[in-house]
Amino acid sequence: MVAMKLLHITPILTHIQADYPEIKFSEGSDFMWSPSKGVVYVTDDSVDEEGIHYLLHEVSHAILGHKDYGLDIDLLRIETEAWDKASEIAERYKIDYNGSYASEALTTYKEWLHARSMCPKCTRLGLQKTKNTYSCFNCGCSWRVPRSTECMIRRYVV
Prior knowledge:
This protein has 158 residues and is an alpha+beta fold. It has 2 domains: 7-117, Orthogonal Bundle (Arc Repressor Mutant, subunit A); 120-158, no CATH class. It is 42% helix and 18% strand. It has helices spanning 10-19, 49-64, 72-92, 99-117; strands at 7-8, 24-27, 32-34, 39-42, 46-47, 126-130, 133-136, 142-144, 156-157. The chain has a 4-stranded antiparallel β-sheet, with no helix packed on it. It has a 3-stranded mixed β-sheet with strand order 2-4-3. It has a two-stranded antiparallel ribbon with strand order 1-5. Strand 3 and strand 4 (39-42) form a beta hairpin. The longest helix is centred in the middle third of the chain and has 21 residues, at 72-92. It is elongated, with a radius of gyration of 18 Å.
């Protein structure tokens, strides 16, 4: 069994706050950027390497001014931008950046996007028409999907 090294985010966070005073930080249960509140939520001080990467990722959303996204593919674009920026920030603060965290996170978004766009009738890929609706080129079916990226993929024929 490999022992997981815990790191302290306070020194990194102190540098980030000094360099980006416009970003607000607050304690939360997970690393998260809230565009509506303009706050990056951070967890406890002791985190593993993955936690440091997610901190940099969420700070990147704030730096880039990411807001809500329109179509699902826009979410994939802003997530990719945030991971790219996290790599730059890591270099700036001399943090060893492990791209596998970004790859894993982006893969989950790609899988989410694929599952939502699959026609519930014929299983071909459809086209997103609005924030919550898709339609199929093959069979003409239309379906709606929940907005959340956190919930189980459900498709409701309309």
